[in-house]
Fold each of these.
Amino acid sequence: MKAFGMIEVYSFTTAVVAADTMAKAGNVKVIAFDRNRPFNPGFPVPLIMGTKIEGDVADVKAAVEAAKLYAEGKGHYIVSHVIPNPGEGVENMTYLMDMNKDKFNKKLPKNLRGAEDVYEVEGASAIGLLEVSGNTAAIIGLDAMAKAADVRLVHTEKRLGGRLVTLIIAGKVDAVTSALERGKAETEPYSETYGCEVIANPHTEILKFFDMTQGLERE
């Protein structure tokens, strides 16, 4: 590992968009999503997530800076750092990953060390993330999105014992945008929205964390 970069932000949604931002900003690999610490009162979003990358020093620095600007714009930035030539003990920690392994991503290993290139990734013109509080709001939002446009669910991320649920849908940009707008509107009476983002042309470094074959018709 030539260089390691990490950014900590509020919310899983922000972490995923930050990862996509970093992958598009430089020639880096996204190696893990990790949780820093559980909920404490007073945070803008009751979840702190870290996104971790590796690559050449210059690429990692540029990528982390781009993600920092994005997260600051959302008011969700906490801290970021770049370590050139990390030591062996540090490198072992960098690959630690905290991702839900529900039915949508059972193929994802516990860490990606030495395994970044083993995935066959289906493309998507866009993915959308809706992060709400509780399963009830999440199901209401999913129903609304499925009825609003031609989208499919590719991942669910449950955090804080189900107090936060992130739904990730895939489809064409306009469909994903319409679905998210409808989903957010339908969940607002039941939950605060902690994340609502469309990622157009998501980088394969992001798609590898999700099973993009979910919902596709198979011969």
Amino acid sequence: MWIRVMNAFGARRDFGRGAAAWVLALAGLNACSLRPVGPDYHGPVSATLTRAGGQPLTRVDQGGGGSQLYSQQPLPDRWWRLYEDPRLDGLVRQALAHNTDLRVAVANLEREQALLKEAGSAQNPSLSVNASPYYGHPSGLSELQPGFVPDNAWHYSSGLNLSYQVDLFGQIRRAIEAAGADSEAAQAAVDLVKVNVAANTARAYAEVCTTGLRLQTARRSIDLQQQSVTLTGRLLQAGRTGELDTVRARAQLEQLKATLPPLQAQRQNALYRLATLTGALPQDFPRSVADCETPPRITRIIPVGDGTALLRRRPDIRQNERQLAAATARVGVATADLYPKITLGLAGSSAGLMGGMGEKDTYGWSLGPLISWTLPNTGAVEARIVQAQAGTRADLARFDGSVLTAMREVETALNNYARELDRFQALERAGAQTRDVADKTRRLYASGKIGYLDVLDAERSLSSSDAALAESQGQLADDQVLLFLALGGGWQ
């Protein structure tokens, strides 16, 4: 193809033979390419990774209830389906399709893929063509004819340049290796955003339902207190109690009513957050979940897998590992600057009067290598090598840190969930007893055997117990989602 292009300028067979020689020289140099300079990447081998890979994820005491809370069964890809909640499933699906943070991560991935393509293009020859017609005449001095003024005429000049950098020491290959690792790190970043989007959507949905439950509990306490207000009013009219009991009952009623506005605001804010997570305006929050009063909760054994599966699944660990691979390749890119660069060039040109275009004497061509080497000052190159090596050590430490963070987050999430379940069970037992005490004190007060202070204390205890139980139920839902977030599921 190159020879045909040059023939369009009128090149003769001798130019074709030169191009063939250029191609043969290029093939020979490629065959003699050395192993790329710099360290080869073999994956991180560290004591931290070795210890974490063989660790089970069920060392946390699973509580005093005697039932198993989690197992080493593999975590499903779409963990939110374990809740068997169609509304939650639809919200997560919508968030993964429209979330703005995810769109940013996808755009960053596309940019890194374009950079990889750009790095790969350095392995290909580059071709440039130029043509410049003009009207006028050169100066007599430039023609070595002082005092002579040439006639005006149309002139032209054109050229074709073909160049190729011989990757003898592997600098281009290392650059492509680094760009490929960066692209894979960007893919891991996309997966990490998916994990967070799914978890945050589930948390916002759980908060909507939790505040709905707490509102329901508060309204039930208000209804019971309203009955106490009515009862004390009747007893006051019958002359069986004093006005102070009625005032106390009404004060307790207003205190219970005061708990509603903060809960209503919290639920509305969760709906706004749910809307933006799914790519909608805050005011366009999903109305279908606004009345939810049952927090999502998985009642069966939660599959968490083992340490090896966790390290493979967590996108942040994979992202740091790929960044380490890119940093290692960049050591080779910097090291290659210590060696000469060889570029083969083939150039053809044609210049003269328009009327003489195509004549043999208007053509010229050249073939030869260009060798560039920065000597003897290599201090700057050596400094860049040291910088790249230090960056590699930092990325290795960051990788080890991400492994430790993953293990800590999972253990913390497991521990919080187990302890909150213990608390929930204790609150259930306490709630049953508190409710029984409240019922008995109402009956005793109605019969005139005790004062209203005893009733008020029992009502306050019941209200606090019901509120704590509802809050714990919501915390259990949140702890479950945080566990799935720590496990890194939801991006496959």
